[in-house]
Structure formats: C-alpha cells, structure tokens
From TrEMBL, chain A:
Residues 1-122 are annotated as: Disordered. Transmembrane segments: none annotated. It is found in: Cell projection, Lamellipodium; Early endosome membrane. Involved in several stages of intracellular trafficking. Interacts with membranes containing phosphatidylinositol 3-phosphate (PtdIns(3P)) or phosphatidylinositol 3,5-bisphosphate (PtdIns(3,5)P2). Acts in part as component of the retromer membrane-deforming SNX-BAR subcomplex. The SNX-BAR retromer mediates retrograde transport of cargo proteins from endosomes to the trans-Golgi network (TGN) and is involved in endosome-to-plasma membrane transport for cargo protein recycling. GO terms for biological process: early endosome to Golgi transport; intracellular protein transport. This is Sorting nexin-2. It holds the Pfam family PX. Residues 122-251 form the PX domain. It comes from Cyprinus carpio (Common carp).
TrEMBL record, chain B:
PROSITE patterns: PX (PS50195). One of its GO terms (cellular component) is cytosol. Involved in several stages of intracellular trafficking. This is Sorting nexin. Belongs to the sorting nexin family. One of its GO terms (biological process) is retrograde transport, endosome to Golgi. GO terms for molecular function: phosphatidylinositol binding. InterPro entries: AH/BAR_dom_sf, PX_dom, PX_dom_sf, PX_SNX6, SNX5/SNX6/SNX32, Vps5_C.
Length: 501, 413
C-alpha cells in the first residue's frame, strides 16, 4: 500500500523562508533538571520491531527525493517509498537540487526473537516537510509541517497534520527529558540550535547555503521525531501525542536561553557537573563499569570519524567545483585548437569532466546526508546515554545520603533515649521511620534505574547496529553507483580520443 | 626501454629510504622520437642527493664524430640549462622552435613534508606514522620520476631535430665526461636576464602588432597567442582539481584508520563490519590516489609541457617578426640612402643581410610550426587515450572492490 502524499508545491509557489525567532542561543540543549515525577512510569517494553521501509530511490536525477520515513511492525510488507515530495524549494528562482536524501530508518525485515511476542500490527509514519517562513526580519521563524500517519489506537485520527516551529521540538525534548531521564530512559536529543544558520535565513538571504541549512534542519527534525516514537515508552507519552496531534501548542518559552527556565537550566547543569566530580560511586556491578568505558571510547572515535567525514564532504565539494572550472577551461582550449579532430575531442573531454563534477557533487551530498549526519546524531545520542549513567549515579548518591541520614537519626534517637526526653523521643522515632522509608525507596529507585538502563542500553545497541549497518551499506551502494557512472562516461569518451587523426 | 633508478633520500647524513623502481619509456610528450638509430639519447639512471639531482645521460650513436658507439656521462640540471641557452643565443637557430628547457627539479615541498612528519612522529600511532611515511616517499618518488622524464624529453627532442642534433655543444654535452664547469648564473647575470626579458616582451608586443603579409604566419600568430593563454588556464585548473582529489583521498585514509579503531573496540556485531569497511576504504583510497597521480601525469603534465612548447613557438614567431621589422627598416634605410645618395653600398649590404635572414627564418619556421602541430596532435591523442584507459581501469577496480565488499556485508546480515 503506497501512501499518497499531497503533490509537492511547485517551485513557483512562493514559499519564502522565514527564519526562526531569535531565541538567544540556548547553550544547553538538554534540559535535564531533575524534577521528581511522582509516577515511576515504567511502561512495559512494547518494543517496536524495526521493520522494512521501502527502498529509497537513489536515482541521482531524482531532484526532489521525499523525506518520509516509515516505521512499521509488519515486516514482510515492504512499504514502497512514497512519491516525490517537495524539496525546500524556497525561491521561485532556483529549484534546489538536493541530492537523494537517504532513508536512515530503512530496516531490513528482520525480527528479533524477543520482540516476537509483541506483534501488534501497528505502524506509524512521520514526516517533516514544507518549511515556511513566518513573519519578518529578526522576529521571523520557520514553521514545519509535521504529518503523522498511523493506525495506532492511541492516536485519535489516522492522519494528522500540524504546524510546528523549531522551539516546539526543543520544548518537547525538554519535557521528555525531565520526565524520563532520571528513570534511566535514553531520550533522543533534539537537533541543535544554530545562530549563524538561522540568522542568514532570517535576513532573507535565499542563497544555496541557507536553503541547505533549512533542508539539513528539516531532515534532522524528522530523524529526531522518528527516534522518539521508536521508543516504546515515549510513543505513549501524552506530550508526544499532543505534539503530534493538537493543532495549537503552547509556546515553549522555556527553551529560550535567557528566560527564567533557561537560567535555571544553566545553574542545574553547573551543579550537575560539580556533583559528578564529587560523587565517588562504589560500582558493584561490573557491567556498568564496562559499558561506561565502552561508551567513552565510542564517543571519542565517533567524534574523530565525524570530523574526518566532514572534511571529506568539504574536499569533495571543492573537487566538484574545481572539476567544473577545469571543464570550462578544457572547452575553451578545445575552441582555440585548430586541428578539428583534436578540438572535438577536447570538447568531449570538457563534457565528460562536467558530468563528473556533477557526480562528485552528488557523492558529497551522499557523504553528508548518509554518514555525516548519522555520526552527528550518534555523537549526541551518546551524550544522552552518558547522561543516563550519570542519573544512576545521582540515584545512588541519594540512596547513600538517605542511609547516612537514617544513621544520624538513629544516633540522635539513642542520645535522646539516654537523655530521657520522652516527647522528643517520639519525634525522633517518627523521623527514623520516615528515613527508613526513604532508604528503602532510594534502594528501590536505584535498582529500578539500573534495570531500566540495562534494558535501554540493550535496545540502544541493537538500534545502533542496525542503523550503522543500513547506512553504511547504502553509502557503499552510492559509491558503487558513482563508479558505474564514471565507467560509462569514460567508455563513451575513449573512442572520441582514439578518433583523433 | 627500461630504466632503473636508485633513489637515495639523504637527511643530514642518515639515509631515510632506498628505493628501486623501473620506468617505462619516458617520451610521453613526443611520439616517434626514438626510431632514429643514428643517434639515440636517454637518461638511464638518476641519483637524488640532498640538493641536486645527477642524471646519467646515455648515448648510442653510429655517427662518425663520436669516439665510441655507446657512452654515458653524468649531468646536472644547470648543464641542461646551459645547453638550452646556447641554442637560444645562437643566431643560426633563430628559425627553429628551440625545445623548451626542463623545469628545475623541485623537491622542496616534499622534503618539507617529510621533515614535518619526522618532527610529529611522537604524536601519532606507529601505524599512522608508517603509512604517512610511505605516502610521502611515494610522492617524492613520483616527483623524481617526473623530473627525469622532463629532462629526457628535452634531450630526445634535440636528438630528433635534423639541425640541432648536429650542434657542437650538444655533442660536447653528450660526450665530454668531465664536469662542464657550467655554473649557475650569479645575481648580476640574473638581473641582466631579467631586464633582457622585459625589453624582449615590450619588443614582442611591438613586433606582434605588425601585420604579416603571409596568411599562414598571420594565422599562426593569432592562434598561438590564444592557444598559449588557454593552455595556461587549463594547466592551472587541472592542477587545482588534482590537488582536491588528493585531499579527498587523504580524508578517506583517515576515515579508514578510525573505522579500524572502531572495529577493534566495538562490542557488538558491528566490529566485523567496521573492520571490513576499513579494509575496503584502505584499498579504494590507494586507487583514488593513483587516479590523481595518473591524471597528473597524463593531463596536467601534458598541458604544462605544451605551455612551454607553445611559448617556444611564440618565441620563434617573435624572432621572425623581429627579422621582418629589421628587413622593412633596412628597406626604408636603403631607399633613404639612395635618395640622398649616401652610404648606398652599406645600406644595400645591410638590406641584403636582413632579407636573407628573414627568408631563412621564414622557410624553416613554416616547417617547424607544421611539425609542432603534428607533434601536438599526436601527443594529445596518446595521452588522452591513455588517460581514458587508466580512468576506466581504476574505476573498474574500485567497482569490483566495492561490489565484493558489499556482497560480504550483505551476506552477513
């Protein structure tokens, strides 16, 4: 069953790009203020078995590759990729050729054994599209259309379309983090703010770099939402449902850096950092120690890899530009050459080089959207994972503190008994009972968070393996395609060169 | 014909690496120059020392003016320049395209990189260091091979030219087995050269402005001017393109290393995956580097060479133009002398000398320019064909590597 999307707005439909409102840069993306949430919302693991998506169309001539992602449970049915959607063709002047974006969430129809039992037939598709500029000047902002198509019962309708702005996404993350992080859930982080990128867009510069920026952001927002709903607990969260469904959303003011909440976040972040240094945890569980070390190493290597890939993207773009300019000079040389056959061959060479330059450009887009963005996402995800480990440390510290307190209260009671003050004695006994309760709660919380983390990390690792596998294979396929094209071009040129008499 | 090279890198007094490579025929830019058995010249060996390169020039000849049929001498770059300059300054050769002098061997950039690598040895892993060292050595070797090729091409061109091959200086160059005691130009001489060049270019503009009666030469003048500029442009652009290509290949190298580390560290199934992909990228990077090197050799060097040749052709046209102007001036002077009836005989002799000079140059220049075109077309054809063939070979190699790796990776899932 192929989903029909509304036909893309024509490039002529003047969608001007309006930048985001100027929140002062919120330097701290994760708003993990450890608010105590009363319910230990430990939803049972209704894991989403990653299933197939339609194969992405990597036809390089496909200018407007869609960015719809599907996550469906019934695997054998490969959802064919949706029809072409709009690329952010902002200006009527230049329809931007953004190369095929890749469906990062393409899943092979594997089923993991432990998810066999949760085979509800539900699927959910989310897409972020149609960036529109609202407002003017420095107060302008971008609005994205979020479309959810699903057959899940928790949603009120089959298909919902809402308009959201960037700060809404940040607000959603902030709420989810405050609710779930302290329980050990890995909450996918939202894309980062970017003052430079947004200012250019706000100012109305509709050049290639601001168009690319909007596209990059749109794609990142989509991946963010998909990762969020993939998490079984988060999918059922009322904030997520509200985000996806309700037409009006209260403005997430607290995401602004200089708001009260923003300042509070900064303070909390500093406090956390200090705490982290002072908490000396007795790790009784080797699993956690090992995992933390592994994530540390992974972090270092992924960052290094990310930097190298970004450098590659840059150099390939350069190569494309230089090849194009060489092609022009070769054409000029061919024009001035007075031997006709050689002149023709040189012109052909120029044409080949021009085609190759386009190839390099496409390849650099693949480099970027496939690998570089994935690596960036994972660098941020691992920060979230490390955050979750920190939460466990905090839970442990709280438990220990409660134990210390209990001990003190017991000592106080003993002293009172000795001093024979019956009225204060009753209070002391009450306090002891209170703190005994707290110690028990602390221990329970600590064990709960440990259990949650184990499960989360297991799920995370499984996803990581799948993500990387899929993306790397896709990337290699793009490289294969490039080489095949190169062969085609040079094979066409060779007889021309041989024909020089 | 095969040549073997022994390249010794000397850093201070310690030897970094010794490599031995054999190269195929070097006359890339000129085809059919080795067919004449009466005089065959090539560079059979070369040694790279700290600040100079020593070429072993090997000659095989049946000509009577040489003492032996086969002999070798050792020459340095300055001696090649001396020979070239002697041709340029010889009035007899004014009507020929003087084969352009080979560029000075320039290992500075490469040497600098090698030194920086040595300094940074502590900050990288052993594997990275060895890898980078190998790459730099390969780069050094490539530059070395190129400079040998350029020097050889110069000699081949001279040997193939019907008139230049008989030049006495050339024979001395080939045969005299002592040092030619040709020192490089000192500062004063270099300054003189500089001014000479300035005067020459100014004069060149003047002379070029004179319209030629002969259509052939007029056409050649316009053609060469435009062609020379376009070749210059194309040469610069192709250099930039190839540099970008090398940069991209370097990035892939780093990516391969990081993937390797990831593969060894990862606790999940991804470890095998990463290791396989790392291996793949190592191999494809080598191919990409070779693509850049081949493009450099077949395209960039070709353009650079014809930049120099077209300049030499322009110089020929300039000399002819100069002779034409002199001839016309002599004619005018003769008319004036006849009118005044003063120094007529002298004016007549001058006019005759100028006329002869001009006609001699014109005659040989025409043939030279026709030969130039033939050589150019043949060289471009050869190199473009080889370029296309090499690009195909590498793309196919890449494709095969990628596809086989994909097959393994997909099979694992």
């Amino acid at each position: 069953m192929s989903e029909e999307r509304e036909p893309p707005p024509l490039p002529g439909a003047a969608q001007t790009v309006f930048p985001e409102p100027q929140d002062a840069e919120d330097l701290f993306v994760s708003a993990a203020s450890a608010m105590e949430s009363p319910e230990a919302a430990c939803l049972s693991a209704e894991d989403i078995s990653p299933s197939s998506n339609g194969p992405r169309d990597d036809d390089p001539d496909d200018l407007f590759a869609e960015a719809t992602e599907e996550v469906s449970l019934d695997s054998p049915e490969r959802q064919p990729i949706l029809s072409d959607g709009p690329s952010p063709a902002i200006t009527p002047v230049t329809p931007v050729m953004i190369s095929p974006r890749v469906d990062v969430f393409d899943r092979s129809p594997d089923q993991d054994e432990d998810e066999e039992e949760n085979r509800d037939t539900f699927d959910i598709q989310i897409s972020v599209s149609d960036p529109e500029k609202v407002g003017d000047g420095m107060n302008a902002y971008m609005v994205y259309k979020v479309t959810t198509k699903t057959s899940l019962s928790i949603f009120s309708r089959d298909e919902v379309c809402v308009k959201r702005r960037f700060s809404d996404f940040l607000g959603l993350y902030s709420k989810l983090a405050s609710k779930y992080m302290h329980m050990g859930y890995i909450v996918p982080p939202a894309p980062e703010k970017s003052i430079v990128g947004m200012t250019k867009v706000k100012v109305g510069k509709e050049d290639l770099s601001s168009v690319e920026f909007v596209e990059k952001r749109r794609s990142a927002l989509e991946r963010y939402l998909l990762r969020t709903v993939k998490h079984p607990a988060l999918l059922k969260d009322p904030d997520v449902l509200q985000f996806l469904e309700s037409s009006e959303l209260p403005r997430a003011v607290s995401t602004q850096a200089l708001s009260g909440a923003g300042i509070l976040r900064m303070v909390n972040k500093a406090a956390d950092a200090v705490n982290k240094m002072t908490i000396k945890m007795n790790e009784s569980d080797a699993w956690f120690e090992e995992k933390q070390q592994q994530f540390e190493n992974l972090d270092v290597q992924l960052r290094k890899l990310h930097a190298s890939v970004e450098s590659l993207v840059c150099h390939r773009k350069e190569l494309s530009v230089n090849t194009a300019s060489f092609a022009k000079s070769a054409a000029m040389l061919g024009n001035s050459e007075d031997h006709t056959a050689l002149s023709r061959a040189l012109s052909q060479l120029a044409e080949v080089e021009e085609k190759i330059d386009q190839l390099h450009q496409d390849q650099s887009y693949a480099d970027f959207y496939l690998i570089s963005e994935l690596l960036g996402d994972y660098v941020r995800l691992i920060t979230a994972v490390k955050g979750v480990f920190d939460q466990r440390m905090k839970a442990w510290a709280k438990w220990q503190d409660a134990q210390v307190m209990l001990q003190r209260k017991r000592e106080a009671e003993a002293k009172l008994q000795y001093a024979n003050k019956p009225d204060k004695l009753q209070q002391a006994t009450d306090e002891i009972r209170e703190w005994e309760g707290k110690v028990q709660q602390g221990e329970r919380d600590f064990e709960q968070i440990s259990k949650n983390i184990r499960r989360e990390v297991g799920r995370f690792e499984k996803d990581r393996v799948k993500d990387f596998r899929v993306v790397i294979i896709k990337y290699l396929e793009s490289l294969v395609h490039t080489q095949q094209q190169l062969i085609k071009y040079w094979e066409a040129f060779l007889p021309e060169a041989k024909a020089i008499a | 014909m095969k040549q073997t090279f022994c390249v010794i890198f000397k850093k201070e007094s310690s030897i970094i690496a010794v490599d031995s490579i054999s190269c195929g025929p070097h006359c890339l830019m000129n085809v059919d120059l080795q067919t004449d058995a009466t005089l065959q010249v090539d560079i059979s060996d070369a040694l790279s020392e700290r600040d100079k390169v020593k070429f072993t020039v090997h000659t095989k000849s049946t000509l009577p003016n040489f003492k032996q049929n086969e002999f070798s001498v050792v020459r340095q770059h300055e001696e090649f320049i001396w020979l070239h300059d002697s041709f340029v300054e010889n009035e007899e050769y004014a009507g020929y395209i003087i084969p352009p002098a080979p560029p000075r061997p320039d290992f500075d950039a490469s040497r600098e990189k090698l030194q920086k690598l040595g300094e940074g040895e502590g900050s990288m892993t052993k594997e990275e260091f060895t890898k980078m060292k190998q790459e730099l050595e390969a780069e050094y070797l490539a530059i070395f091979k190129k400079t040998v090729a350029m020097h050889e091409v110069f000699l081949c061109r001279v040997a193939a030219h019907p008139v230049l091959r008989k030049d006495l200086n050339f024979h001395v160059f080939l045969e005299y087995n002592q040092d030619l005691s040709v020192r490089g130009k000192n500062k004063k001489e270099k300054l003189e050269d500089f001014f000479k060049n300035v005067v020459k270019s100014a004069d060149g503009v003047l002379v070029a402005g004179v319209k030629d009666v002969d259509d052939f030469f007029e056409h050649e003048k316009t053609f060469l001017l435009e062609y020379h500029n376009r070749v210059k442009e194309a040469s610069a652009k192709s250099d930039r393109k190839i540099r970008s290509h090398k940069n991209a290949a370097d990035d892939i190298n780093r990516i391969a290393s990081t993937l390797y580390t990831l593969g060894t560290q990862d606790s999940t199934d991804l470890c095998k995956f990463f290791l396989k992909v790392s291996e793949l990228f190592e191999k494809t990077r080598k191919i990409e580097a070779r693509v850049a090197a081949d493009e450099d050799l077949k395209l960039a060097d070709l353009l650079k060479y014809y930049l120099r040749e077209s300049q030499a052709a322009k110089d020929l046209l300039y000399r002819r133009g100069r002779a034409l102007v002199d001839y016309e001036n002599a004619n005018k002077a003769l008319d004036k002398a006849r009118a005044k009836n003063k120094d007529v005989l002298q004016a007549e002799t001058t006019q005759q000398v100028c006329c002869q000079k001009f006609e001699k140059i014109s005659e040989s220049a025409k043939q030279e320019l026709i030969d130039f075109k033939t050589r150019r077309v043949a060289a471009f054809r050869k190199n473009l064909v080889e370029l296309a063939e090499l690009e195909l070979k590498h793309a196919k190699g890449n494709l095969q590597l990628l596809q086989s790796c994909l097959g393994v990776l997909k099979g694992d899932t």
